[in-house]
Amino acid sequence: MAKKRTIRSIPQQRTPVREQDPRVRRANFAEVNLGYNEAEAKLESQRCLLCPDPTCIGGCPVGIDIPGFIGRITEGDIRGAYDVLARTNLLPAVCGRVCPQENQCEGKCVVGDALEPVAIGRLERFAGDRAIAEGWARRPHIEPNRFRVGVVGSGPAGMACAADMAKAGCDVTVYEAFHLPGGVLRYGIPDFRLPNEVVDAEIDALRRLGVRFECNTLVGRLFTIEQMIGELGYHAVFIGTGAGYPAMLGIPGDSLNGVLSANELLTRCNLMRARDFPAVDTPLPLGRHVAVVGAGNTAMDAMRVALRLGAEQVSCIYRRSRAECPARAEEVHHAEQEGIEFHWLTAPVEVLGDGKGNVRALRCQTMILGEPDRSGRARPVPVPGSEHDIEVDQVVFAIGTNANPIIGQTSGLALDKRGYIAVDADLATSLAGVYAGGDIVTGAATVIEAMGAGRRAARGMKDYLGLSEPATPRLPGDLSGTLFGIAPEQKNFVRLRVA
What we know:
There is one protein chain. The protein is an alpha/beta fold. It has helices at about 20-25, 40-45, 65-75, 80-85, 90-100, 105-110, 120-135, 155-165, 185, 195-210, 225-230, 260-270, 295-310, 330-335, 405-410, 440, 445-465, and strands at about 20, 35, 150, 170-175, 210-215, 235-240, 245, 260, 290-295, 315, 340-345, 345-355, 360-370, 380, 390, 395, 400, 435. The strands form five sheets. Strands 5-4-3-6-18 form a five-stranded parallel β-sheet. A five-stranded parallel β-sheet has the order 8-16-9-10-11. Strands 12, 13, 14 and 15 form a four-stranded antiparallel β-sheet that branches. The longest helix has 19 residues, at about 445-465. The chain is globular. The chain starts with 17 loop residues before the first strand and ends in a 34-residue tail after the last helix. Mean pLDDT is about 90; it is low at about 470-480.
C-alpha cells in the first residue's frame, strides 16, 4: 500500500519548466514554454496529495478527475492518464497551454495553501502532448442514429459539442466562416503559445469520430439558422460563434491609418500567415513604435506578435496598475522578459495624426486608483493636468470584444440587452432545437469554460432528441408513471410540417 502523501513528504519546490531564451524567442514564433519531459512530469506529479475529496476538481469547468490522471503519471501510466483526461476534456494539449489554471484548478489546490500549487496545467499538457505524439485516441463504440446535428463555429465550444453529439451517434457537420477550422484557437492565439500543429491534431481527433467540417461557410449569409432546422434538415443546431466583434475606445483619431484592433492583427498573423509575407499574399503593415491599449491575454499576444514581426519598440498602455492586470501572470512575465514596455496607470485620450492621415503619437493621461467599480476592481481616476504624449506610429486596441452580430441580425433568436444570444439553464435558445454556448452567450471567457458550455448544450440537445438515458432505469414491462409507455423524463415534442 502506497504511503499517504503529506505536505511535509512531497517535493517542496514546484518543478520548473524549460523555456526558450528571451533573447532568442523574441525573433521567432516557436513555442516559448517547452513543457515537461517524463522525468519532470513524474517529479511534479508526486507533489499532488491525491486528496480523497479534491477541491481542484471543483475549480475545473468540465470537472476533470485531476488526482486520477496525476496519480497515473506518478505510476508511469501515461496512456492511462490521458484516458482519464479524455473522459471529460476533448483538448488536453490545448487547455494545458492556454487555460488560466492559476484561477481555476490550481487556485483550488490545497497544496497551494502552504507551497506553490501543483502544476496541474503543465501535467495536463504533458499527457495531451504524449497522446498526440503516440497517436492515442479514445474512440468509444458509436451506434449511429437518424439525427443530423449542425454546429455553427469550430472554436472550443463548437468542438466540444460536436464531439459529444458524434459520440451519441449523430451525423454532425461543423460550419466555419474562415478557411481553416479551430476558431479562436487558430486565429486568436499565436503559435508561440499554442502551435497550430496541436490544434490540427485535436481537430483530426474529431474527424476520426465522424465529424465533418465545412469551411468558408458564413452562416447567416449563405443560409440562416431557421433554414438549417427547416430546409437543410438538421434536427438540432448548436451556435458557438464566439464574441469576435472587436471593441474600440471611441476616442478622437481612432480612424487614422495605423489604428487597428488586436483581433485584426492576430487574425492576419495567425490564420492568414501575414508573418510570412511576401511568401504568402497577406500584408500586415506594421509600425516601428507600437502601442497596445489593454492588458489582457489578447493584449499580451498582440504585443509579443508585434515584437516578432519586427517592431523596434512595443508599449502596453493600461489604465490600472499591474496588480489589476487581467492577463495571466505567466504571460505578463514573458512579455517583460522580451522587452515590452509597460505604462501602468495610463489611459489614452486621443490618437494624434501627422497631418497626412497617419498616427504620430498617442495622447494619454495619468490615472490613480479610486473606489471599486462594478467589476470589483479599483476604478481609475484621471489626474488633472497629467496629459502627455507617447510617440508611436501604430496603435492596437485590445480592450475586449462584443457579440458577433451576424447570427442575431439574420435569425429570429431572442437576444439579451448586450446583443448576446439568450438561453435557458440548458442553453436552449428561443428557437426549438437550437442551442448556444460559449462567448456568444456569456461574453469573453476561457477555452475550458467554452468547452464546458459546449458539453452542457450537448446534454440539452440529447434530451431534446430523446437520446439521453432515463434518470431511473426501468425494467422491461414496467410502465408505471408513464404516458403511452413514455417516461416523463423522455417526453419530447416533434416538428410537424403542414402541407
